[in-house]
Amino acid sequence: MPAEQLIGVGFAPTNRAPCCAGSVTIDLRKLLRSVQVFLPFAQDARFAVQRLWQRWGGRPSEPDLLAVPLLGLEPGALILDVGANRGLALDLLLRLAPQARIVAFEPNARLAAKLAARHRGDPRVEVRAQALGEEAGTATLWLPIYRHWAFDGLASLDPKAARGWLEAGRLYGFRRDWLRLEPLPCETVRLDDLELRPAFVKLDVQGHEYAVLRGGTATLRRCRPVLMVEAGQDERVEALLRKLDYVDARFESGRLLAGAEGAGNVFYLPHERAERLLAARPPKSRPC
Q: Would you list the DSSP string of 40-59?
């Protein structure tokens, strides 16, 4: 799930609390998520608060990105933020790798415009209102809206994926008739057609990861970037990357560790650099 959709910033990972002396428990994030749909006017303000919280040292929107300083990126290295959404991960990347360049892909044109405006004047950042995919052309991005709250971090080119997370019991008192999908036209491009040379790719595109990778296999062979891919159920992702000689890893206790069991995000390391990356230790001071 995209970090932008997490509610209750600052709650500990164990977010269930007893609501009475009995055995009934309340999921605090689920409760706050259920309340927020009645307050759509507060959506931009909530993300602004979350951005400030992250900037002032609160729990990062995407904690696994804290692995970036371990990658040894050179000054001017290119990072791709694929599925930039509202830019919380982009903000974090700018602090973790301040000398890197970042190209952010966000197919929701309204969010892409906000991101571009926020980072206007920063030569390190380029925002593209595009979706990466297996083929170039046009597509429909499906934006789930519950009551009047747009869960833009769940938008997907797959309508089933766009609905699925909310339909899986993530809201108290969920009503199917309150959930609708808004179709948004978007441009799709292939990574292999863009002549980019990424050193690190963050990939979070709500079930569309395999198509993105299929459209970028030549780039992966040529540039050998480290990948951070949201863990999912599509076994084709791992099969494809194994064929490209990548090994999986997870970020845990400040280090990259071999194997991805239980990870929310999977790091895929080029085989020829995996041993060095797995041996890397965190810097003495963390940028964020």
A: GGGHHHHHHHHHHHHHTTS-
Q: How far apart are CA 285 and CA 275, in angstroms?
A: 23
In the chain, domain spans: 23-279
Place of tokens 């004047």: 121
- Interatomic CA distance for residues 122 and 58, integer angstroms: 24
Tell me the C-alpha distance between 200 and 73, whole Å: 8
Closest CA to 78 of 116, 126, 39: 126
CATH 3.40.50.150 fits 23-279, yes or no: yes
Q: pTM of this prediction?
A: 0.84
Q: Provide the pLDDT confidence category of residue 111 given band limits of 50, 70 and 90.
A: very high
Residue 239: the pLDDT is 96
Q: Which residue has the higher pLDDT, 164 or 55?
A: 164
